[in-house]
Structures are given as C-alpha cells and as structure tokens.
Amino acid sequence: MRFEALCTGDELLTGLTTDSNTPYFAAKLFAQGEQLQRVQVVGDKREEIIRALQYASAEADVLIVSGGLGPTADDLTAECAAQAAGVPLVERPEVLEHLRALAAARKFALTPNNYKQALVPQGAEMVVHPMGSAPMFILKFGRCIAFFVAGVPREYRYLVDREVLPRIARMQTQEPHRIFRAARLLKTVGLPESHLDANVAPLAAAHPQVTLGFRTQAPENHLKLVASGATQAAANQALAAAEAAARTLLGEYVFGADEETLGGQVGKLLQERGATLAVAESCTGGRLAELLTAPPGASQHFTGGVVAYANEMKRRWANVPDELLGRVGAVSAEVAEQLARGIREAAGSHYGLSITGIAGPSGGSPEKPVGTVYVGLSGPAGTRYQAYSFRGDRDLIRAFSAHAAMDLLRRELLRPAP
Amino acid sequence: MRFEALCTGDELLTGLTTDSNTPYFAAKLFAQGEQLQRVQVVGDKREEIIRALQYASAEADVLIVSGGLGPTADDLTAECAAQAAGVPLVERPEVLEHLRALAAARKFALTPNNYKQALVPQGAEMVVHPMGSAPMFILKFGRCIAFFVAGVPREYRYLVDREVLPRIARMQTQEPHRIFRAARLLKTVGLPESHLDANVAPLAAAHPQVTLGFRTQAPENHLKLVASGATQAAANQALAAAEAAARTLLGEYVFGADEETLGGQVGKLLQERGATLAVAESCTGGRLAELLTAPPGASQHFTGGVVAYANEMKRRWANVPDELLGRVGAVSAEVAEQLARGIREAAGSHYGLSITGIAGPSGGSPEKPVGTVYVGLSGPAGTRYQAYSFRGDRDLIRAFSAHAAMDLLRRELLRPAP
Q1: Chain B environment of A25 (Cβ under 8 Å)
Q2: Structure pTM?
Q3: Best mutation target, A72, A309, A358, to test chain B (most B CBs within 10 A)
Q4: B24: contact with A, CB 8 A cutoff
C-alpha cells in the first residue's frame, strides 16, 4: 500500500507554524509497518488544494489530508474534495446536530459560518467526534481512501489514534506481505553524535532486519532502532537482540529509552536507594531543579533547591564562606564542592548537587572563558567535583550544564552504595 | 514568481525528525515579499526524488531542494538532479580541494564516499562554503532556478541567509510588481486565543494591507501582523499603524514583541526601577527562576530563588511557620503570601514572588483539585496573592503557573512606583 499526506494552510507556508502533525502520523504509521511515501503542503488556495488532492490520490492507496475544515472563509478543504471527486456538497444532519449540541454546551450561538461545517462531499463516511466542531470524513477517490482530519494538533492526534490508524490496521490484515515493526529509542548523554554513530556501527551488519536512525536533541543524542519482521513476534525478537547489542556497545552512556527522561531516571535511582537530593545552582538558574522535578512524584526524593545567583545567597543558603569566594571566585571547583556540601547539610538530604559556571554571553575571562562550568556532588561517599568547558550560546551552555550534573549523579547512583 | 520547496530524507517520513528548515526559509521568504506555494517531502528513493524535481520545476520559478547531499549511500540528490535535468555528473576540482582542506584541518582521511560529494550535475554553479563538506549547487531546469542545499539545519540556515535569499533579492529587483513586507509578532499572556482573535477582529477592515496570523505557544498566544506595500516604506508605515491599533485593542495583555520573552520583559522593568527580585516556588520546581534567569544580564536584578519542595524547606528558606502549614496547608493563599514575604526578607530584595500549587497528576482533592495554584507577590506596596485553576497535564500546569507569576509582577511593575 502506498501512503501519502497532504497538509493545507497558509500558516505552514509563511513560517508562522511548523507542521507537527505529519511527523506524529508518520512515526505511528511506521511503527505499524508502513511508511509514508510523500507529503505535500499547499496553502489555502482552491486550485492548489484540488491539484494536490488529484496528484496524491492518483497513486496513493491511503491519503491523510489535514487542515481547512474550520468554519472560516479560508477553510476550503471540503469544497475542494467534492470538486476533486466530482461530487456535490451535501448537508449532513448528524453534523448539524453535533454543532447545535456543542454550541448549547459552550453557550454560544451558531453563526452562518458554523453551518458550513455540515457541508461535506456526497458519499463521504462521517466521523463526528467530541474533540472539536469539524467532523472527520472519509472519501474514496477511485481506489484511494482519503481521511480528512482537522489540523488542530489536539484533534489531529485524537483522530489519528482513534479513527485513522485502526482503520489502516484493518486494511493491513488483508495485505499478503505485511511487514511488522517494533521500535525503541535509546537515549544517551555525554556522547557526541559522531561517536554514537561510530560506536554502534557494528550493529548494521549483525542485525540486518533493524534500521538505525540518529537524532540530536542537545544535550542528548538518541539512537532509534526499528526492527522489521514477517510477524510481530519476529520483529520484537529482532529488536530485543539489537537493543541488547546496542546497550552493550554504548554502556552507561544510555540513560533511558522511549519516554524516559534523564531527570526521571535520576529520580528512579534515588527512589530505589531510598535517598533524597537537594541542589544548589548558579548559572543554570533553576533549570537543574526544573528537570529533576518535572516527573510526577519528584517530591518523594527531591527535598529542595536554591538558585544562588548572588554571592550573598551562596553564603546564606549553602554556607559558602566569603573568604573562599574572594580567594577562588564563585566559578571554581572549591565553590562547586562547597555548594554541594552546604546544600546537602542545609536540606538534610543524602545527596547534594551543585552547578557554578559562566553561561555568557558576558562574564568570561581568558582563564575562565564563557562555558566554564563546575559541577559538585556531595554524598555518603564524600564530596567531589567535575570541570567542563561547553560551547554554544547561553541557553545551550545552561542545558549542557544541567545534564552534566544529572549525569554525574546518575553514574554515582549506578555504583553500589558505599 | 512561483516558489516551491522539496525536502528529501527517510527520517522525515518515519517521524524521526521534524523539518524545521522549511518554516525557517518560508518565514524569511515571506518577509522578503514572496510566498512559498508548495512543499513536497519524499524519502531517499531515486524515482521519488526525480519525479518530485520534475513536478516542482515544471511550474516553479525558484525551487529550494534540501537533504541528500552527504557522503553516504542514501544521499542521492546530486545524481537525481543530473538525471532530472538530463545532464551527466562531473567531478568538480574546487570541491575536491575543499574536501581535502577540510579533512586535513579535522585530521581525518578522505574515504571513497567523500569523493562522491565532488560529483555534481554538469553546468551547475557551485557554492563551496565553510559550514560543511557538502557544497551547495545551483542548477537550471528550463526557466526554474533550483538551489540545492544541505539538510543539516545549521548549514541550511547559513546557506539560506547568505546565498539563497540574496540571490532571490536580486531576482526581485527585476520584478515589475514587487511586493514589500514588514512583520511584527505581538506576544500576549493571560488571554485565551479565542479572545485574542475576537479582540483584534476590528483590525482586518481598518488595515486591509495587513494580514493577521494567530499562533498558540502555551501559555502565550501570539498575533502576527504582516503588512504588504508597493515600497518598503509603505509596508513599514502600514505595519506601524496596525501595530499601534493592535496594541491599543490588546492593552496590557501584550507583554512584548518578536524575540522578547516574558522573563526578559520582567527583568527590563525591574532594571528600569533599579529593583531586585527573589522567588520561592514549589510546584513549578525551578521553572520560574529558570525563565527569569534565561535572558543575559539577569544577575543584575535577580538575587536568587528557592525551590521549597519539602515543607521543612518552606520554613527554613522562606520562614513559613509550621503552624500555618498545618492549619491551611502548603497550597493556600496564606502560604503563597508568606513565601513571597519570607523570600523577599531572606534575600533582602525589593520584590518577592512565590508559587504554590498542585501540578498533578496526583495530590488533588475535591476542595483543591489538580491545577489549583496560588501566586504570592510581596513588594514595597505590600503583599497579596492571586488564585488560579489551570487545566492540563503536569507540564502545562507548571508552565501556566510560572507565566501567571511573572505576569502578576509585570503588571505590578507597569504601575507607578508607590
């Protein structure tokens, strides 16, 4: 089966919005064993939409069309679909009823524009749904089945998951040579992309049923493994073998998989050990605490944190002596260690983690250029520090610093408790 | 002139990566007076790429093609371009020289794969550039001028800015009816998108040369104004008039424009007043401090912050009495006020800002469901609080809470100092 997508909307062609819908559908479709072959994006223009519908439906078996189903004048998709299919628009009573119920619930009056949403190409299958006013409809262009869905991401994703993909799955059961897939995203930290690539190079030959993909989401680098097989069990098995091999090759650089986050993994390790954590950060300005508290349940192991921007607050909240600050400067190994030790004591937690550095753009010097960062870690095994020099803008340096700190603690927690 | 784009790469059709290049080009092109008419995305398949090149170049005057210029086996773009144009591939010595210099500088040996990057369609204009190994090339398909650029975002953006857009600008000078544009992004907070839309509805009729676009970047809603004119001065003037009218209609909901951030604007207002700020946050876990310290120079007015997750830390860092916590609970108006007052005193700052709430997914109750948030503000004019009930997941509730707190302080700072 050939799969295509068509996205409509001027906002996609003027750079106002980025299409996040198609990647969402593409990833889910691929996991279901099929690959999107072509995407077209066109603006809110009748002739462009009609032509794109004809071009796609002439070859595709399945087409997903998004956008242009709203009530305003530039919502042209239903009209263009009717014209491309050579059928008239008809008013569907079930849609009218849905629109009236929606208006009553939200206490607004239906305008003439709203009624437009009940006009759909004759012969279309309707899917009225609770996520929005625009109904989804399904229309055949010759042998091509086209799903017309709203472009609002919340509605699009709902419809893809609940209506489009299940229908595709039913079509797949009739495919004689169906491909099954299984996928895993392995997430690494501390490993440049070129090294990740080189480290897993041996996988390709040993696991021919598995394709490798690389994605950088600074400061993380991700490896995607997608296994294909003639049955789901075969795909799962090929994936498991490749994943095990990849984890062996990458070792502790892999901190998690799929939806797991570095902050969440650190939390899980603390939880397993029944340990608590407090943090003291300077240049990252709260980012470290934010990442550690993003996962639900963080209050179980995260005691608290301070953003000790002014030196006075380093002294007051983490007991960093003025004498030390004067002697070695706030951005130093000694202050990183004392911040970690001091916050651990102040919060009465098992671990203390700290960051002090120069995120820039100003504040650098020849001895300590922008990107100089010290991370301190204090715990049952004592107190130590790690020095880094990161490159990039302020935001990137802050991001790399917070990840480096979490990773230092993560690796400590992977060791047996002292 | 008709403008089209073609993006190649299996990773775009399996959902591994999202194309951020085309929105970048589209926005810059639109600002330069032209609109992209169609985008095609295809995978790394010869027949798909050739067909897409032919389909686009048959109609477009200008085509930008990205991806597939690397050294690996699935980089097929140069080969497909030659085939679509009906010319042979030839080896270009200036590219070979560039590749050798690059390899020497980076201390790696050239592989046979690398030499492939010197093979380009006969007759192409070459643009060897320092951002990568793949040269950009320019090829004519009949009257269509096609720019072939690397898909790596860093290289793509560099080439679009320095090579592609200036060449398009030179082509525009020969256009008899050239359109000039001027754009402004107005950023609002605290105003639902439907209200934003309704508030600025009068603009459309009064400013026919200006188009309005809406974009939600929760918790913010943005209004994009794009003015068109026969000269740059006319476009600028139309934009200025529409922007002034929009600002009048939206009032204090507008916190900034274009690259300005809410954290940055709060910082600017504090700076103007020579005032300092400290924060105490609970459910937002550091996000408030992070947003306030993201702009460069935040250390001038941001004294410090605490993430008082455990009640013990609320007592120790912001002097919230155990008795109060026991009586009204950590998520309460009284505790929000005391957190703000206490952190202001502890840090010796002019203002103290606090957040306490339930970000979920657990921890809610019938009286205080998930999404219940209190913001406290303490300053020269006294201490007060504001209550909110947000909907959404944990991340969204944290995001809305931090924005609500910054906005409360921003509005306070817009008033005359007491």
Answers
A1: 15
A2: 0.91
A3: A309
A4: yes
pLDDT at position B66 is: 97
Residue B365: phi and psi, rounded to 5, are -145, 170
Contact check, Cβ <8 Å, A296/B394? yes
Residues near A265 by Cβ (< 8 Å), separated by ≥ 6?
A255, A256, A410
Q: Are A268 and A253 in contact (CB under 8 A)?
A: no
Chain B residues whose CB is inside 8 A of the A226 CB are: 14
Asked if A16 lies within 8 A of B27 by C-beta distance, the reply is yes
Contact status of A316 with chain B (Cβ, < 8 Å): yes
A221-278 pLDDT, tens digit per residue, is 999 999 999 999 999 999 999 999 999 999 999 999 999 999 999 999 999 999 999 9
Give B-chain residues touching A11 at CB under 8 angstroms: 213, 215
**What pLDDT is stored for residue B177 in this prediction?**
85
pLDDT at position A195, please?
A: 84
Helix (H, G, I), strand (E, B) or coil at B387: strand
**Across the interface, which of A10, A226, A290 has its CB nearest the CB of B285?**
A290
- Please list the ranges in chain A whose pLDDT falls under 50: none
Mean pLDDT for the stretch of residues B310-331: 96
End-to-end alpha-carbon separation of chain B, Å? 58
CB contact under 8 A, A13 and B26: yes
Strands B180-189 and B144-149: unpaired
Contact B17 A316 (CB under 8 A): no
C-alpha count within 13 angstroms, C-beta hemisphere, residue A306: 34
Q: Is B42 on the interface with A (CB under 8 A)?
A: yes
CB atoms < 10 A from the CB of A185, how many? 17
Are the Cβ atoms of A313 and B303 closer than 8 angstroms?
yes
CA distance B213 to B225: 7
Q: Do B348 and A312 touch (CB under 8 A)?
A: yes
Q: What is the pLDDT of residue B102?
A: 84
- Identify residue A164 by its one-letter amino acid code: V
For B:255-294, CB contacts with A below 8 A are 279, 284-290, 292-294
Question: Cβ–Cβ of A290/B290 closer than 8 Å?
Answer: yes
Structure confidence at residue B130 (pLDDT): 85
Question: B347-350: long-range contacts (C-beta < 8 A, 24 or more apart)?
Answer: B347/A310, B347/A313, B347/B276, B347/B278, B347/B303, B347/B304, B348/A312, B348/B303, B349/B275, B349/B276, B349/B277, B349/B278, B349/B303, B350/B270, B350/B273, B350/B275, B350/B276, B350/B277, B350/B379, B350/B380
**pLDDT at res. A194:** 76
Could you tell me where the DSSP H helices lie in B354-393? Answer: none
What's the residue count for chain A? 418
B80 phi and psi angles, rounded to 5 deg: -70, -35
SS3 label, residue B211: strand
Chain B neighbors of A298, CB-CB under 8 A: 285, 309
User: Any alpha helices (H) in A117-175, and if so which ranges?
Assistant: 153-159, 165-172
Residues 385-414 in A contacting B (C-alpha not used; CB under 8 Å) = 394-395, 398
B173 touches chain A (CB under 8 A): no
What is the reported pLDDT for A165?
A: 98
Residues contacting A354, CB < 8 A, separation 6+: A279, A280, A281, A318, A336, A337, A339, A340, A343, A375, A376, A377, A378, A405
Q: Rounded mean pLDDT of B344-350?
A: 97
pLDDT for res B392: 87
Is B306:B318 a contact under the CB 8 Å cutoff?
Answer: yes
Put simply, the answer to whether B25 touches A41 (Cβ < 8 Å) is no
Neighbours of A78 (CB within 10 A): 23
Cβ-in-10-Å burial (0-12, 13-18, 19+) of B96 comes to middle
The pLDDT tens digits for B51-98 are: 999 999 999 999 999 999 988 888 999 999 999 999 999 999 999 999
Residue type, position B112, single letter: P
| Nearest Cβ partner for A38 among B48, B297, B307 | B48
